Amino acid sequence: MDVEKALLTRRSVRRFTSERVSGEDLEALLEAGRWAPSGLNNQPWRVVVIEGRGKAEELSACTRYGSIVRSAPLLLAVFLDREASYDRDKDLMAVGAFIQNILLAAHARGLGAVWLGEILKEKRKVGELLDVPGECELAAVLAIGYPAEEPGSASRKPLHDIVLKRF
Amino acid sequence: MDVEKALLTRRSVRRFTSERVSGEDLEALLEAGRWAPSGLNNQPWRVVVIEGRGKAEELSACTRYGSIVRSAPLLLAVFLDREASYDRDKDLMAVGAFIQNILLAAHARGLGAVWLGEILKEKRKVGELLDVPGECELAAVLAIGYPAEEPGSASRKPLHDIVLKRF
């Protein structure tokens, strides 16, 4: 898929078929994330891969979007490693770039995905469930699989609301 | 350019030719950013476009990377709009996704770009120079133009250092 097409047509997908995501696809998503930019190249992102149904079920209890979590054959829990961090603001932006690379790679491969943030209200519990080191702070959960729905319509502010000034 | 090729081959470019970036290219970059995802679709990103040499010169005094700023025919100052913000962590990650979309669109068009973060140490001064509303907080400056150098080699952690666990 062409880059700009991917950038403009990626949408959140919240319902998935039961078809598994292949190991090759999973590796490609992580590889795309890996090449995201970060300040001082500190790469503060960490990931837990969840395909097992038992762990997905436990995670689903941590969010009001549990049905999305249960429906997704692949979940990526993304963490900020606070020990690798040098500037929280910059590192969070880098994690956002990492996530976006993964979402774009998923879209390019015909997978659907959604970036779940509401689950952060239970970030400690999720960290415990996934047994991650204490320095790893939950940043997002990505639910990924083959789409079982057409994404709904999406809207964005017009450019003139985003561009404040030109010099 | 193919999406995955773009995701894997984008590198920071820090020296630019004097060739201007066309209005069409600029619009495509902003359009790519516009379609980034954000929590509650709040789109907390704002941009100031800088092509004029006078303003670029003023900005260059705010960072030790002034030569990059002066060399770039196009600068995009990216801001977090704190009035549009609902959760600082999530909004910073969304701004990171916005920036990454712009960097990828630039790469796809044969442009080079670099994400400058060190300039945030002068975020207030930059906000004043660019005369943005007080609720807009500098998040990054992107320097963009046609590459006058081959990007240097880049490295990333191996996947097994990023993936903490699999369930």
Please give the domain count of chain A: 1
Report the C-alpha radius of gyration of chain A, rounded: 16 Å
Most extensive chain-chain interface: A-B, 71 and 72 residues
Give the number of helices of chain A: 7
Which bin fits the share of residues in helices of chain A?
A: 25-40%
* CA-based shape of chain A: globular
Uncertain residue ranges of chain A: none
Category from helices, strands and their pairing of chain A: alpha+beta
Using the 3D structure, state the CATH architecture of chain A: 3-Layer(aba) Sandwich
Strand content of chain A: 15-25%
Question: How far apart are the termini of chain A?
Answer: 35 Å
Largest sheet of chain A: 4 strands, antiparallel
Output mean pLDDT of chain A.
97
The CATH topology annotation of chain A reads as NADH Oxidase
* Strand line-up in the sheet with most strands of chain A: 1-2-4-3
Can you put this structure into words, describing what you see?
Two copies of one chain form a homodimer. Chain A has one domain: NADH Oxidase. Helices cover 39% and strands 20% of the residues of chain A. Chain A has seven helices and five strands, in the order ααβααβαβαβαβ. The model of chain A has no long low-confidence stretch (mean pLDDT 97). The longest helix of chain A is centred in the middle third of the chain and has 21 residues. Chain A is α+β, with helices and mostly antiparallel strands and 167 residues long. The interface between A and B is large, with 71 and 72 residues.
